[in-house]
Amino acid sequence: xxxxxxxxxxxxxxxxxxxxxxxxxxxxxxxxxxxxxxxxxxxxxxxxxxxxxxxxxxxxxxxxxxxxxxxxxxxxxxxxxxxxxxxxxxxxxxxxxxxxxxxxxxxxxxxxxxxxxxxxxxxxxxxxxxxxxxxxxxxxxxxxxxxxxxxxxxxxxxxxxxxxxxxxxxxxxxxxxxxxxxxxxxxxxxxxxxxxxxxxxxxxxxxxxxxxxxxxxxxxxxxxxxxxxxxxxxxxxxxxxxxxxxxxxxxxxxxxxxxxxxxxxxxxxxxxxxxxxxxxxxxxx
Length: 285
What we know:
- The chain is of the alpha/beta class.
- It has two domains: 3-113 and 221-283, FAD/NAD(P)-binding domain (3-Layer(bba) Sandwich), CATH 3.50.50.60; 128-217, FAD/NAD(P)-binding domain, CATH 3.50.50.
- The protein is built from seven helices and 17 strands.
- Strands 1, 2, 3, 4, 5, 6 and 17 form a seven-stranded mixed beta sheet that branches. It has a five-stranded parallel beta sheet with strand order 7-14-8-9-10, with helices on one face.
- Strand 5 and strand 6 form a beta hairpin.
- GO terms for molecular function: oxidoreductase activity.
- Residues 4-270 form the FAD/NAD(P)-binding domain.
- It holds the Pfam family Pyr_redox_2.
């Protein structure tokens, strides 16, 4: 398995700037993100505080970002990271049934993730998971609940339903669902996850579901959930001026490290994070 020098998680201005500078510094890297780069940028009606891009819409700036990536030969891997584990001298990044390895990580996840359910963090790894296709074999013949925040969650639910004795699907969005016939759709709002040493119940606003496991499938999870042991302060990743986190070899940049939530600030921090990661790698040769 290839072990990259740098893994960059997030394709907003911070992540893209980090990737460009990793390329300039001739480091092997992988950039994870969305083909749309960032939804926040697409929705911006007009941007005037990004030096050199005055009077442009977010969509126009996105187009310029894409041209820059193409010019630099920077490729995007459109996959969602479900968990990142520090393994000592490298990091393991989990994407469903696949795993990537990198000597350093730059977190540029933004602030678009939803707040965890009550009990979600408490039971993480004790019946609560974020990758249904990874952990499905653990629930063969058992009752499973999938809380899906997007259409992609339906594919994972269908896979789990082939192994589970019973599967409940709780959609957090509206529309038509392409689910296997043996899946029971529960259109209700989840409130709290309960259990003893392990999950045994999902409380919704109108009912309760007895379940052996719960998969919460979101567009993205909070950094504290994504990276076990990561220090969070006032809802943001705690970093120093060089964008170092409390985890050796892990850096962060952009909205996820604090206000102001501005594109130009995020890009600057992405640059600093990349240079800090390069310095860390060169120092460990």
